[in-house]
Amino acid sequence: MRKLAAAAALALTAVLATSCRPETACPAIGQAPVVSLTVDRAYAPSVKTVHLKACQDGRCAEADLALVPGSIAVDQGCEPGSSGGDGVCSATSSPNGTLTGMLMMEALTANRIEVTATGTDTAGHPLPARTAAFIPRVAHPFGEQCGSFVTAWVVLDAAGLRQAP
Prior knowledge:
Elements: H1 2-20, E1 34-39, E2 47-56, E3 59-64, E4 68-80, E5 86-104, E6 113-121, E7 130-134, E8 137-139, E9 149-157, E10 160-163
Parallel strand pairs: 1-9
Antiparallel strand pairs: 1-5, 2-3, 2-6, 4-5, 6-7, 8-9, 9-10
């Protein structure tokens, strides 16, 4: 009888302890498995096309990228709020001279990835093949309990291809 009472007390304590923990709500946000490319602004005027190939975990994806002008967000400031704090804030996008593109992968993991960029310059001549191998970055923007976001981002310039800072 004592063992049964002790087991019941232990079970009740476990239920109470778990019900008192604050629950963390995780956002229902998915991440596209892409390799992002930025062509540096000093190199962008000489680049016409980029073909990207990425291999990870024995799987490869490759495509001619749709290059679009890159931009940065410019803070437009905040209006004063009614209670003294910030009210409505805004920003605008401003071209920064880069070109950007994305390569869709089947999956993207935290394992080593190898990315190769080829393409043509504005005169139609081939660009030198450039390769970079690196470990994608892993972040937990909503906390460890909400899963991780894996990013693979490379920069192409006249010197080569490298993981973005």
